[in-house]
Amino acid sequence: MTDYERRSSYTREELLEHGETEAFGPGNARLPLPNMLMFDRITHIDDTGGKFSKGEIRAELDIEPGL
């Protein structure tokens, strides 16, 4: 995935790819790579949701031994 594609969810593999490439376009921030990635998947993105209707992102982290 090298071109930015507006999505409503991302898998862990897609998040890692976004940390290694300029998937959001040249000059834009990249996602951190492990061990700094703080979630395993994004399950929901809504640019009008949230308390003040400014956007909402829901993510999940798998809790594993050794964390």
Largest sheet: spatial strand order: 1-2
Helix content: 10-25%
**Beta content:** 15-25%
Radius of gyration: 13 Å
Kindly give the count of domains.
1
- H and E string: HEE
Distance between the termini: 29 Å
- Tell me the major beta sheet: 2 strands, antiparallel
Count of individual beta strands: 2
Structural class designation: alpha+beta
**Morphology call:** globular
Low-confidence stretches: none
Mean pLDDT across residues: 85
Keywords:
two-stranded antiparallel sheet, 16% strand, 67 residues, alpha+beta
Task: Write up this protein.
The protein is an alpha+beta fold and 67 residues long. It has one domain. It has one helix and two strands; from the N terminus they run αββ. A two-stranded antiparallel sheet has the order 1-2. The radius of gyration is 13 Å and the shape is globular.
